[in-house]
Write a structure and sequence with these properties.
This protein starts with a helix and ends with a strand. It has a five-stranded antiparallel sheet with strand order 1-2-3-5-4, covered by helices on one side. The protein is 13% helix and 42% strand. It is mainly beta. The protein is built from one helix and five strands, in the order αβββββ. The model has no long low-confidence stretch (mean pLDDT 92). It has one domain.
């Protein structure tokens, strides 16, 4: 994902949480996922080389990258 697209996306989302090299944003405006074109629930940005995610619910994930960060777009069932 190029920087302009990433910046526009993040500016449209609601910051939720940042801890341990992981930042999450809520998609409160129903923006389409760049991978599947369906609205996603959250964007999870993994900023470190290694991250561990503890998921409390079953999710579908779409994946992209930006400047060596992994971007996870979550979709609840």
């Amino acid at each position: 994902m190029d920087s302009d697209t990433y910046d526009d996306l993040v500016q449209s989302l609601t910051p939720h949480e940042a801890a341990g090299g992981v930042t999450t944003y809520r998609n409160t405006v129903r923006i389409a996922c760049p991978a599947c074109d369906k609205p996603f629930d959250d964007l999870v940005v993994c900023e470190d080389d290694y991250n561990s995610l503890e998921l409390s619910r079953l999710l579908d994930l779409c994946v992209s990258t930006h400047d060596n960060d992994v971007l996870l777009f979550t979709h609840q069932h």
